[in-house]
Q: What sequence folds into this?
């Protein structure tokens, strides 16, 4: 519990720092690249990208449960609709106010630093969560 | 304006699918299960990682603040 609070605190601080840096600068790219590299390295080290580790393969099979193509189809339809809307937005110039792309729509939610901080924290947690799950799985498996 | 509403409709549809997935797991997968299905293959995991990184760069290193 203490460790979780500490990790969330560190990620919040990191998000606040990232949210305060001007976009399109080398520093902003570095601040985003660092967690990407760190998470991918940790994920790889835990065997997340392993092709021949049976334990890892079984873990991912188990997580998918009874999901089949037909039960996932509604999500695929939703994703296709989003992709189609994004393509239409891009074809109309990308910055159209009548048909904005997803990123133009989201930009309105990133105007303030605290908003960017919240989104960045959500993004970091989305990256950290699979790591935590994988780590927990193998910690439980070892004991 | 219309597209902004459409994005909202897609968001609401996603929430409804998630609720449906929890109520009737045999008919519709939850988002977690759908993502887990992609994760079964290494290539799927790589695609998800790339997508996550792309979102990060796009939103936090390449954002533009609207002027209106």
A:
């Amino acid at each position: 519990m203490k460790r979780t609070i500490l990790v969330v605190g560190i990620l919040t601080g990191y998000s606040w720092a990232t949210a305060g840096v001007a976009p399109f600068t080398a520093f902003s790219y570095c601040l985003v690249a660092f967690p990407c590299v760190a998470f991918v390295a940790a994920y790889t080290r835990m065997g997340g990208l392993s092709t021949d580790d049976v334990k890892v393969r079984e873990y991912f099979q188990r997580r998918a449960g009874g999901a089949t193509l037909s039960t996932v189809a509604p999500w695929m339809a939703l994703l296709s609709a989003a992709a189609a809307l994004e393509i239409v937005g891009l074809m109309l110039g990308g910055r159209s106010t009548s048909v904005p792309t997803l990123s133009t729509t989201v930009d309105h939610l990133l105007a303030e630093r605290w908003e960017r901080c919240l989104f960045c924290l959500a993004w970091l947690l989305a990256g950290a969560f699979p790591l935590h799950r994988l780590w927990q799985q193998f910690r439980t498996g070892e004991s | 304006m219309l597209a902004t509403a459409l994005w909202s409709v897609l968001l609401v549809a996603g929430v409804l699918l998630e609720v449906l997935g929890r109520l009737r797991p045999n008919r519709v997968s939850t988002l977690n299960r759908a993502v887990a299905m992609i994760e079964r293959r290494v290539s799927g995991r790589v695609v998800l990682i790339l997508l996550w990184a792309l979102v990060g760069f796009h939103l936090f290193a390449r954002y533009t603040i609207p002027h209106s």
